[in-house]
Amino acid sequence: MIRAVCPGSFDPLHNGHVEVIARASSLFDEVIVAVSTNRSKKPRFGLEERMDMARETLTLLRGITVEPMGEGLLAEFCRSHGAGVIVKGLRSATDYNYEVPMAAMNRQLTGVETVFLAADSHYTHLSSTLLKEIASLGGDISDYVPRAVLKRFTSNDGE
Ligand code: PNS
Q1: Tens digits of per-residue pLDDT, 100-119?
Q2: Residue 65, beta-bridge partner list
Q3: The domain that contains 103 carries what CATH number?
């Protein structure tokens, strides 16, 4: 039984995240979507709202749970939850250069392995930051985010 963790801020979850999480759920027995507090970034959506959007979107997928990551290390979160694998999507060489040192450090910290999934070509240009900017300027993001996310943008516009 292999339990994997898909970590992130998910501020908000977008279709690129969903695609990677769905692929992780087909590769591993259980997947925990770990939603970070990430105090260094000022989130557009609160932690509970980010978790609700993920739960509403992902509950139909097999073996997926959504949990808060808390304030601590991701490697410790994985250990305390019995997860031996972290799954990350890679969109670009920039992602690679950012992620590989963290993967090496997480492995040294607790032995947790990181598995990278190459982002599907439909999603390599997606980022939560870009989508928030487009939405705040009145652009249409409906092709890029799940329904549970879109409805929160339209009921809470302009921020
Ligand atoms: O969606 P994001 O903002 O790119 O997610 C980043 C996240 C939450 C995965 C990353 O910031 C993280 O791993 N935070 C936990 C803190 C930690 O373990 N830091 C040391 C990494 S070696």
Answers
A1: 999 999 999 999 999 999 99
A2: 32
A3: 3.40.50.620
